[in-house]
Amino acid sequence: MEKQNYFRTYREKRKLTRVELSEKLDIPRSALELLESDDWIRSKFDYVVLVAKELGLSLIELIKQEFDYDLEKEFFNEEEFEEIVARYANARVTLILSELKLFCRNSKVRLDDFDITELSFSMGNLHKLITLNQKLERNEISAKEALVEFPPKWGKFSNRNK
């Protein structure tokens, strides 16, 4: 039995051609052709989300269809779900702290100059640290300029004056 391709089915229900959909979403027609093929999983995630949203297609249904994945069964056990969330949070904090350590080394400040209890462990801060570290390593900005963009909040263990 051949798998149903939801992208094609939903596009045809809306009576849209690939050309019309491609022009409406401003994406290449080849991207739509790949989405409507058996190998749609190789498509750029941006295109998957954009086309699915336009066609009213559920991403969860796509995942269930492609991977035979039952989300309700997977997260039925609350303890397992909490463990997954805790591992994700721990990995995120570890990644941000490792980037912060690298930033401190690159900008010639000490880690204890930052009050990590007040540091937001957001993906925005992670992105900012990664970008600044890259710029510092390529000598595109000075340590002083980097500290202006990501200033330390003096930690309680810092010996520096405020």
Summarize the structure.
The chain is mainly α and 162 residues long.
List keywords for this structure.
162 residues, mainly alpha, 434 Repressor (Amino-terminal Domain), 2 domains, 9 helices, 61% helix, elongated, Lambda_DNA-bd_dom_sf, DNA binding, XRE family transcriptional regulator, Cro/C1-type_HTH
What is the number of helical segments per DSSP (H or I, 4+ residues)?
Answer: 9
Tally of strands: 0
Q: Give the percentage of residues in beta strands.
A: under 5%
Helix content: 55-70%
Return residue spans where pLDDT drops below 50 for at least 5 consecutive residues. Answer: none
Q: Can you give the mean pLDDT?
A: 82
Supply the number of structural domains: 2
The helix/strand series, from N terminus to C terminus, equals HHHHHHHHH
What form results from the Cα inertia axes? Answer: elongated
Biggest β-sheet: count, sense, barrel? Answer: none
How big is the Rg?
A: 23 Å
Ends: how far apart?
70 Å
Q: Which structural class do the helices and strands define?
A: mainly alpha
Structural features, described:
The chain has 162 residues and is mainly alpha-helical. The chain folds into two domains: 6-72, 434 Repressor (Amino-terminal Domain) (Orthogonal Bundle), CATH 1.10.260; 78-149, no CATH class. 61% of the residues lie in helices and 0% in strands. It is built from nine helices and no strands. The chain has helices spanning 6-13, 18-25, 29-35, 45-55, 59-67, 71-74, 78-107, 123-137, 143-149. It is elongated and about 60 Å long. InterPro entries: Cro/C1-type_HTH, Lambda_DNA-bd_dom_sf. Pfam families: HTH_3. This is XRE family transcriptional regulator. Residues 7-62 form the HTH cro/C1-type domain.
